[in-house]
From TrEMBL, chains A, B:
Keywords: Hydrolase, Metal-binding, Zinc. It comes from Saccharopolyspora kobensis. The keyword Transcription regulation does not apply. It comes from the Bacteria. This is N-carbamoyl-L-amino-acid hydrolase. Its cofactor is Zn(2+). Zn(2+) 2 binds at residues 88, 126, 378. Belongs to the peptidase M20 family. Zn(2+) 1 binds at residues 77, 88, 185. GO terms for molecular function: hydrolase activity, acting on carbon-nitrogen (but not peptide) bonds, in linear amidines; metal ion binding. Binds 2 Zn(2+) ions per subunit. The keyword Transmembrane does not apply.
Length: 412, 412
């Protein structure tokens, strides 16, 4: 398949769930997510590839040359953030489908490779409708409990199980047995663009953790209660938000990110001083020590805020994700492929979580990045050019070819 | 009726919508609000008093001695904040019903007064489910548009009109024509308790206004976007919350209150830097100049936050409520009644809004306070003792008797 046919498909898919400002909104297991899955299924059906859906909604298109052999899995996710960008996730799945199509044509003219191929759309990578993120691949890899995840609810009380049934993608099919995994994704950061390099070979993920923070003050009347008599949960929580942001200034630039994306207050009435605020802080750094130092500084500073405002602030660690190293063999494959294509490549960390990080826990994984204009993501102005995307599809195709030959194996 | 029968009724009503921590939750036009209204209606029916419901859900029990004469209105509101106290509002309505019962017995033994009497439960004083607050009395007084208010929705999209119909309290009855208004309420502040005085005669309301603040940043990935590339709407909004709180320190203690009770963010996903925050600040002071100075300081400081974070912060004034003076004649009536009862009384400002402030725009109004333990309100530990409540019922009864004789009239 040509670059043109890839670009045609990519831009057609980007019209599904499109927003006026150039982004997309297709959160997990919504009607828009179903439309993308139907498109994926039709792509496979046109080529005679069997499709499987597992019990957490992961979707696989199988390209089989050796009955009974294991599979090289290649893919990413089709779901998006609310008002998200059109590249995050979808690019990697569409690139994987086109890589598979090119490789199927190549095999038809020669010897079958060692492994079969499966293109995958992982369920709910984004975690915006159903927390936590990276759900489908983590269940696949045995890192999260499937029954527990099926019971997770969205803000309307709908469970993952109900939402998957509603769109017809709660399957019962056997999962393809993986031998290795490959994924391509936009960088979502500024490094490749700044250095003018076409490809990144991801060498490791950042250390990440979340803090679940509950601020318990006292509800009172915004008009009638004197300032000295108040224990305002929102004022204290606001200081926590600023502390979470400002702690990054204690470290080297670009070595750490930290922010609060989720916050709710009760009772949230314009004339009532809030009694309770619940917020989630997300801290990530390129070394565990940095996250741990930032966490210790925050705990100390948050305790001071609680004392100052005479209220309770409970802080709980969760979703701790250690640094994952991607195998050296995969990095070398990526570098060889880039050299053959005449494309620049560098090794790079990923600050964001990815399905590849979960898969790398059970099979050797290879992850490629292409540049993000201005380094932005999870927003409508996320952008990568057609030329940059085309190089990525070529690189993913050749890297997958190497994996199909058994060049990236656990025992090496 | 005796003090005992008042206290029995008060504590029975406090059990409706009771919360485990000793408060109540009966927001406007909920099933709990309906239960209180049904209790009010039954109280009137037992005494043969006709009940009227107007088209914004205000509920009136009429005690008529002179067909065709105007009415002295006496009452407050039965709705509460979420997890509110059992005294705020309900005390004033139950006190008014008992005052009416005592006066009906007094008139049965003597000459009818100049005016008829109507006890009123104003719809939606709290404004927590349907904004703005003080809705029923403001529509009655012609200060808010009835059709507009009927279209106001709660967070589930239910309109005031639908909610009133659902509980069977959207009426079509003619409104009683008012000659004067009386109300008793808990202070919701610390003054009476601190000074050990049984009664407050409200001489004026505070100047109040709200600021509607919208912070517009840019949505991005909490993990992958470098700190320098972010325009985080929540960090900027948190600084605004702290500024709104801290501006009070620029003025005399207890001359001003200022806070944010309402805040929402979008998209509110743990791994997305927020793009938009909407919040409402509430500023009140005992003089207009203080609110205006605080507002000017805030506008300047908020603009600096917008510049610092390279984002847009729009601030809009709304719900400006000028200082209202209660008539001198009413204060003198309150002082005479207290002296006759041997109870202490002082003149006092109200920091909170009340139905009496709206009614005072169209007829002369008299408002009494009784103490609030610790000065707290809009919370479950709101408290006033039985003895303090009993003095208030006696004072309201005698003050209403004066009003029924025409002692507080517009033309005086």
């Amino acid at each position: 398949m040509s670059t043109e046919s890839f670009l045609t498909d990519f831009h057609q898919v980007a019209a599904i769930g499109a927003t006026p400002a150039g982004g997309v909104e297709r959160q997990a297991a919504t009607p828009e997510d179903k439309q993308l899955r139907d498109w994926f299924t039709a792509f496979a059906a046109e080529r005679g590839w069997p499709v499987r859906v597992d019990s957490i909604g992961n979707l696989f298109a199988l390209v089989e040359w050796r009955p009974g052999a294991d599979y090289v899995l290649v893919g990413s996710h089709l779901d998006s953030q609310p008002l998200g960008g059109r590249f995050d996730g979808a690019y990697g799945v569409i690139a994987a489908l086109h890589a598979a199509d090119r490789l199927a044509a190549r095999v038809a003219r020669g010897e079958p490779p060692k492994y079969n191929l499966a293109v995958v759309d992982w369920f709910n990578e984004e975690g915006s409708r159903f927390a936590p993120s990276i759900m489908g691949s983590s269940v696949f890899a045995g890192l999260m409990d499937e029954q527990e995840m099926l019971r997770v609810t969205d803000s309307d009380g709908i469970t993952v199980a109900e939402a998957l049934e509603a769109i017809g993608y709660r399957g019962t099919d056997e999962r393809p047995k993986p031998a290795a995994y490959a994924e391509i994704h936009i960088e979502q950061g500024p490094v490749l663009e700044r250095e003018g390099i076409a490809l990144g070979a991801v060498d490791r993920s950042w250390y990440t953790q979340k803090l679940d923070v509950e601020v318990l003050g006292e509800q009172s009347h915004t008009g009638a209660t004197a300032m000295a008599d108040r224990r305002d949960a929102l004022v204290a929580a606001s200081k926590v938000v600023v502390l979470v942001h400002d702690v990054t200034a204690d470290f080297e630039p670009e070595s750490i990110v930290s922010s609060v994306g989720y916050l709710t207050l009760e009772p949230n009435s314009p004339i009532v001083v809030p009694r309770r605020v619940h917020l989630v802080a997300d801290i990530r750094a390129n070394a565990p020590e940095i996250v741990q130092q930032a966490r210790a500084l925050l705990l100390e500073r948050i305790a001071a805020v609680a004392r100052e405002h005479d209220l309770t602030i409970d802080v709980r660690d969760f979703d701790v994700r250690p640094v994952q190293h991607f195998p050296e063999q995969g990095l070398e494959i990526a570098e060889k492929v880039a050299a053959d294509l005449g494309a620049g490549i560098r090794r790079i960390n990923t600050m964001a979580g990815h399905d590849s990080v979960a898969m790398n826990r059970i099979v050797p994984a290879l992850m490629l990045f292409i540049p993000s204009v201005d380094g932005v993501s999870h927003c409508e102005r996320e952008f990568t050019s057609d030329d940059q995307m085309a190089i990525g599809v070529d690189a993913l195709t050749e890297a997958t070819w190497e994996l199909l030959q058994g060049e990236l194996e656990a025992q090496r």
